[in-house]
Specification:
The structure is a homodimer. The first copy, chain A, is built from ten helices and 27 strands. The first copy, chain A, is of the alpha+beta class. In chain A, 55% of the residues are buried. At the A-B interface, strand 7, strand 10 and helix 7 of A face strand 7, strand 10 and helix 7 of B.
C-alpha cells in the first residue's frame, strides 16, 4: 500500500480528505462567476485546469477548456499519464510554481458540481454474485437462484444515457404500469417499490470498433464513479418479461461528481473470486482488475438523521469492468469515449452488506428500522439516499465525493 | 389519396420513382468533390440544401450546413413545415428560380449516402402482434404465445446506438457464446443463426423531459426510415434471461439513407387494429397514427438473383410509434433529438408475411427454397439482405431508398 503524497494544499494532507494528492479526480464545476469548466479536486479546493491550460501551464490541445472531460479522455493513455504527472508536480509539497497555481484554486464550498463527462451510452450489468443470488432466491427459490448463464456471461442490458444525472439532482418518484399478482389488469400510478442499486460506474476513455481483449479493455477504462441505478421494482416486475427492464430503470441513474482515475486506484487492485466454472478464454482474468473500495449506503429521512443501511466492497464483484467491457465488444459492438458501464448491484455475503432495498427488506417482507425509529421496506418521499465509497491507503483515502439523491413525490 | 405533385425535375414525375415532389426525404451525401452534407432526394437527383442555405435561397440558421439533420430537427415543427413548403415552391413545375436551383442538383448516381442523422439513443420495440405470436408459439406453445403484459404495454428494450449503420455497410457475422440445449457448457464462435428483423424506425425530432401524451409524441416524431435489426438468434437464446437481448442485437442495425418525413406520410395514415384489451388512458389511440406502407424483404445469394422472401405492411403493428414514445416517457425518461425507435418486427398474418427468418423457417425447421434453388433457414455468408418499402399514392409512391447489407464471414 502506497503512502500519502504530501501537497502544499494543506487540506489535502488530512487523513480524512477524500481528495489527497494521490487521488486527483476530475470533475466539472461552476461558480457564481464562471460557467461550467474542468477542475481537479485537491483537499477542500478545486484546481481550475481550464485556466491553467489557458495560461499555458498545462497544454493538452485545448481539451481542458470545455465543459466535460470527454475531449481529454479521447487523447488517450499517454495524455492521461502526462496530465496526472504534471498535476502532481504542480501540487506536491515544495512545488516551485505554487503562487501561480494557487491563484486558480477555488474552494469546493463555493462551487457547484456538474456532470463530469457526457454519457454517450450507458450499459448496466448484473455481475455481483451475492446480489444475483439474493434476487434469484426471492424470485425462483434457492436451488434456481443463479440463471444457467450467470457463471459464464457477465449479464448486462443497455440502459438509458439520457437519464444519468449528477449527485444532488432531485429524483421524482416515477409512475408506470403496476399489476399485483392478484390483479386482473394493470393500473397506472406512482411506483410503490422504488429502490436503489449500489454500483460502481466504469467510464470508457478510448474507442474500439470490434472485439477487444480483457487487457485492452482494462487499459481503455479511464476511471470510475459511484453509481446509483434507481429502480422501480413494481414497474420492473410487470414489464421485464421477455425483453428485460425498461421503464423501471429509465427515470434516473445518479453518479458521483468526480471521476476517480484508474491510475489513482492502481494501489488498490484486487482479484475476482475463485471461479466455480472456468470462463471462456475471451473472458479469463489476466490479473487483478477489481479494486478494494469500501462502499456504503445511507438513508436520511425527511428532517431526520442518516442511517447507514449497507456496507460492502467493490471487490465482491464476480466480473471486473474489464471483463464486462470485453464481453460487450465480443459481437463487434463499437464502444465510444464516454460510454458508461454500471457494475451491477454490489452486495456482500451478509445481511448488512446488501446494496438494494429489495434485498435489505427481502422483497418488502422484512422492513428495517432506521435510527429515527421509522421503518423502511422501500424508499419514501423526502428520503435522501447517499452512496459513499473510499479506497483506504496508509494514512490516506481515495474518495469519490457524494452520490446523493432526494426523492420528490410524483408530480 | 392525394395525387402526384408535378416537378420540373422530370425524373420526379415517374410513377416508379421513390422520390416524387410529394416525398422530399432528407439525407446526407458526399461526392468525389464534396464532404458529407445535407441533401433532399427528388427523382434521380439530390438537391444540395447546404449550398442553397449558403447562397441564401434557404434560411434555417445554418442548420442545413452540417453533416446531419439533427440541428435542423431541433428547430421544431414550424421550421419542419416551412422547409417542406419552401422546397415544394422551389421544385414544383413552373417554379421561377429553376436555373438557380438546378445548379445545385447532384445526380444520385454520383453520390455516396451517409447516416442521415446522428443516432443519440436507440430503442427497439416488440410491438408487432403476428411476430410476437409466432415467436411465442415457437418458444412457449400456442396457448402461451403472447406474454401476459403484451396487450397492455408496448414492450421495448434499449438497443445500442453505436451500432446503427446506413444501408450498404457490410455486416460481419458476429461471434458470441453459443450453447445448444444438450451442451454441457457454452462455446465461443460465429453465430449459426444470424437473422434479420424487418422494422420501421421512427426518429425523434423534439426533446421531452417528462411524460408526454400520445398526441405530443406523434407531433415530436420527425420522420421514418426502414430498419433492419440484425439478430443472432443463438447468442440471444443463451444470453437473454433474465435481462433481455444484449450482444445478440449489438453487432449492427441498418437503416435506409433517407428520412421520410411524417408530413410526406400524412396521406397514408392508418389505424391500429381493434384492441383485445382496453389500453390504459396514457396509451389510448387518439386517431390513426400508423401508416399504410408496403414492405418487403429480398435475399440475394452471393452471385445469384434476388428472391422476395416476405411481403407485409407497417399497418400490421399493434402499437404506433407515438404510443411507443408515450410509453417510453411514462417513467420520466428524457428523450433527445436524434433518438431512434425501432417498431419491432413487422409480420403479417400469413406465412409469406413474416419479417424474420426465425419465423420464415419456423426456427430452422422449415427452410425456404430461393429462386436459385438454394435453401435458407438463416443468413449465409455472402447473402445480401434488402428491405424495401413504399406508401402507394394515386400515380406516385413514397419510397425510402434501399436498406441493404451484405454478410461477411467472421474475421
Amino acid at each position: 500500500m502506497s503512502e500519502l503524497m504530501k501537497s502544499w494544499v494543506e487540506s489535502a494532507n488530512s487523513p480524512e480528505t477524500p481528495f489527497p494528492l494521490n487521488n486527483l479526480p476530475y470533475g466539472v464545476f461552476s461558480t457564481s462567476d464562471t460557467a461550467p469548466r474542468c477542475g481537479v479536486a485537491i483537499g477542500d479546493q478545486i484546481l481550475d485546469v481550464s485556466a491553467l491550460e489557458a495560461n499555458g501551464l498545462l497544454s493538452f490541445g485545448g481539451s481542458l477548456s470545455g465543459s466535460s472531460w470527454n475531449a481529454f479522455m479521447a487523447l488517450g493513455q499517454d495524455s492521461w499519464a502526462r496530465l496526472r504527472q504534471e498535476l502532481t508536480t504542480l501540487l506536491e509539497d515544495g512545488a516551485p510554481n505554487r503562487s501561480v497555481v494557487e491563484a486558480h484554486l477555488v474552494p469546493q464550498s463555493h462551487a457547484t458540481l456538474h456532470m463530469p463527462f457526457e454519457v454517450i451510452e450507458y450499459t448496466d450489468f448484473y455481475a455481483g454474485r451475492h446480489h444475483a443470488t439474493n434476487v434469484g432466491t426471492m424470485f425462483r427459490g434457492a436451488e434456481n437462484a443463479l440463471p444457467p448463464n450467470w457463471l459464464h456471461i457477465p449479464i448486462g442490458y443497455n440502459g438509458r444515457a439520457s437519464s444519468v444525472v449528477v449527485s444532488g439532482t432531485e429524483i421524482t418518484r416515477p409512475c408506470g404500469q403496476l399489476k399485483g399478482p392478484d390483479d386482473d389488469a394493470p393500473r397506472f400510478g406512482p411506483s410503490q417499490r422504488f429502490d436503489i442499486e449500489l454500483e460502481m460506474g466504469a467510464i470508457i476513455g478510448q474507442p474500439s470498433s470490434g472485439p477487444i481483449s480483457v487487457d485492452t479493455a482494462f487499459a481503455n477504462i479511464f476511471g470510475y464513479v459511484l453509481l446509483n441505478d434507481w429502480s422501480a421494482r413494481d414497474i420492473q416486475a410487470w414489464e421485464y418479461q421477455p425483453l428485460g427492464p425498461f421503464q423501471a430503470k429509465a427515470t434516473a441513474t445518479t453518479i458521483s461528481p468526480w471521476i476517480v482515475t484508474a491510475a489513482a486506484l492502481e494501489p488498490f487492485r484486487a482479484s475476482t473470486p475463485a471461479r466455480e466454472k472456468e470462463l471462456l478464454p475471451y473472458l479469463r482474468d489476466t490479473g487483478p482488475m477489481l479494486y478494494d473500495i469500501n462502499l456504503e449506503v445511507g438513508l436520511t429521512p425527511d428532517g431526520g438523521r442518516e442511517t447507514i443501511v449497507a456496507r460492502t466492497n467493490y471487490k465482491e464483484m464476480y466480473y471486473s469492468a474489464a471483463q464486462q467491457l470485453a464481453h460487450h465488444t465480443s459481437c463487434g459492438c463499437p464502444m465510444r469515449v464516454g460510454d458508461l458501464l454500471g457494475s451491477g448491484t454490489i452486495s456482500g455475503p451478509e445481511k448488512d452488506n446488501r446494496g438494494s432495498f429489495l434485498e435489505i427488506s427481502w422483497g418488502g417482507k422484512e422492513p428495517i428500522t432506521l435510527e429515527t425509529g421509522e421503518q423502511r421496506s422501500f424508499i419514501e418521499d423526502g428520503d435522501i439516499l447517499s452512496l459513499n465509497g473510499a479506497a483506504m491507503g496508509d494514512g490516506y483515502r481515495i474518495g469519490f465525493g457524494p452520490c446523493d439523491g432526494r426523492i420528490l413525490p410524483t408530480a
